[in-house]
Predict the structure.
Amino acid sequence: MTYISNKVINKMRFCTLIFFVLLTSCKSTLNVQGNFPTPVINQMPFSIGVVFDPQFINYQYIETGKDRSEWEISVGKAQVQLFDVVLSAMFSEVITSDKLQTISNKPIDLFFQPSLENFQYNVPNETKGKMFEVWLKYNLKVFDGQQQLMADWVLTAYGKTPTAFLKSDEAALNEAMVIALRDLGAGIALRFGHVPEINQWLKSKHQALQASTVY
């Protein structure tokens, strides 16, 4: 029977601990945080029910590529914050829910459901400009007051940050993410009313409001 001294056992335990510390240190984690300015636009006199499903709220990207560094990037809270800011500037009333349904006792004019379809990023050793880059692709769906699909379109956004201006990789990637989300917010605010189906709906509503004012 082979006897192993406590000293050897303790040394083995210490080496195991160091191995797991080193293994963990190779992984970068990021919980995206930032401030999103309120867009200066004319607010529409309509209510909108916004559907943030659990997958959207808790969206997390985990890098699985064998040739890339390990990253765990939590985007959910930041993108919800962005949509809250932008839609509150666009509509007179915003009501949120986790599923498409009647979410108040009074009629809702429109329902809106965003989903993050694709998230990509590049790190400095993958870019010629030595910067972090982020691409976001969202699918945006708008339903009428009866919850019938009215419009379904894709909106992309982009952000980048030179590493020279920030102290850590996490800070640089966070800033690129925030810039991409701001780009998304600007795109929603500027293009929402130009989506053909939504534009037609808005025109009919404005005509109805004008008619009711005349009479």
